[in-house]
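queue> holo job accepted (glutamine)
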Amino acid sequence: MNTDTDDSGDLDQVLAEVTEHAKPSADDGKVADYIPSLAEVDPNLFALAAVEMDGTEHATGDSGVAFPIQSMSKVFALVLAMQLTEDDGEGVSEELWRRVGREPSGDPFNSLVQLEREKGVPRNPMINAGALIVDDILLDHCDDVRGSMIELLSDLAGEEVGVDESVLQAEGDTSSRNMAMANLMASFGNLHHPVDDVLGAYIHQCAISMTSLQVARAVRFLANDGTDPASGRQILPPRLARRVAAIMLTCGTYDAAGEFAFTVGLPCKSGVAGSIACLVPEKMGVCVWSPPLEPSGNSLAGRVALSELSSRLNLTVF
Ligand code: GLN
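queue> job finished
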């Protein structure tokens, strides 16, 4: 791999060293505790996986252990919505960007305050409210939104992925805040389907269970101008793949997006189970997983790992 550095060494070795370096930071984070399966997870689990464009896979730690992808699913829901633009015309794109913005929020991912101030139009598709709008639009165009998500992710991961039923159940039992957001947006006329239907699709995508290696494979197409290097299939045209990456970079890690741009310099999307998916344009897909989070809701050791990986291999896009 051409990493443009003197000391990149062997990628397996680099990942092992990055893992050693980052793992202790998990002690300063806090695991999500709004559902039992996240609250009870072993905080010492750690995985770092990287898949190169030629398919070479590298992984450390618990890269074979599955976890709910949670908010990383927002990237793939946005991809499905952007595919509609290709299939059903520019009108879908116009509607999408009229109903959801493209600006970092500067507020927590589940904030209601901003939604009220900004008349039910969420700041971006990477926060919960924005993802609910994306799902609302998908419900208009896909016969089976849940099936489409599973199909896309299984296709990209190269193997069948499924849903963690206990997470699905628990997400449903604790969805008051997401329901409040959906209702608030409905009150502004920015939600067209029944709240339960939209929430059902959203909760389902959050409960999809994948390993870090599967996620690293699945995001590679976004680092490859929209084409899945495994199958050669164009998932998105290059211009749209780059837009997804731009939104990940500016909004994918919530109120820490500036910090991520500064220290990692790569498009990232986090999930509350402690995973972060990361794109290294033209080189590889990466996923790190360490459950304890920093205050913005991103994996703490995950951020340290990506920052270390980026600086060692000089990967920043800037
Ligand atoms: N299921 C979580 C929620 O809706 C997902 C949030 C996240 O991963 N940041 O609150």
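queue> The longest strand covers residues 47-52.
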